[in-house]
Design a protein that fits this description.
The chain folds into two domains: 70 residues; 69 residues, Winged helix-like DNA-binding domain superfamily/Winged helix DNA-binding domain (Arc Repressor Mutant, subunit A). It is built from nine helices and no strands. The longest helix has 22 residues. It starts with a helix and ends with a helix.
């Protein structure tokens, strides 16, 4: 059987290299093929077609090696276990700071006066235009602009402190 094996080594090399194996991988696979064939024969196995048997053994070993190579690319873990996604929620310190800032800005708007506060909120929170606000209060657009300017000045002063 050794002679049959040696007679087909070049054929096995061509087949394995043709399937994308490097020279080193091919040598390793041929050596493993020889070991497997020898073990099979030592255990009493019979081979009628040595070339076909060795080619099949080598190709099976090559396939198994490819599966092992690719198996390392995948993980049984879920994506959530693999990647620690940042928590988009604010920290307690950030929540507290935002609440304090909101209280300061609310107090500043109160200092601007009730009408300036309402004009600011209608414009910036509710998305109303100056003409819509003017119509609501039955005032001129110019008056609304002045209330808005007063609110913005007070808020700007609060933010710069």
């Amino acid at each position: 059987m050794l002679e049959a094996f040696l007679a087909h080594v070049r054929h096995l090399e061509r087949i394995l290299r043709g399937r994308g194996r490097t020279r080193e991988e091919t040598e390793d696979l041929i050596q493993e093929t020889f070991i497997r064939v020898k073990r099979f024969l030592d255990e009493g196995g019979e081979v009628r077609e040595p070339q076909a048997f060795m080619v099949t053994t080598a190709l099976n070993l090559s396939r198994d090696a490819r599966e092992r190579e690719h198996r390392e690319l995948y993980s049984p873990k879920t994506l959530e276990d693999l990647v620690q996604l940042p928590d988009g929620r604010p920290t307690p310190d950030e929540v507290l700071a935002a609440q304090q800032r909101l209280i300061r800005l609310s107090n500043a708007l109160n200092r601007a006066g009730p009408r300036a506060r309402e004009v600011f909120l209608m414009s910036r929170v509710h998305g109303m235009t100056y003409p819509q606000i003017a119509s609501h209060f039955k005032l001129s657009v110019s008056a609304i602009e002045k209330y808005m300017a007063r609110a913005l000045v007070v808020l700007g002063e609060e933010l710069t402190e």
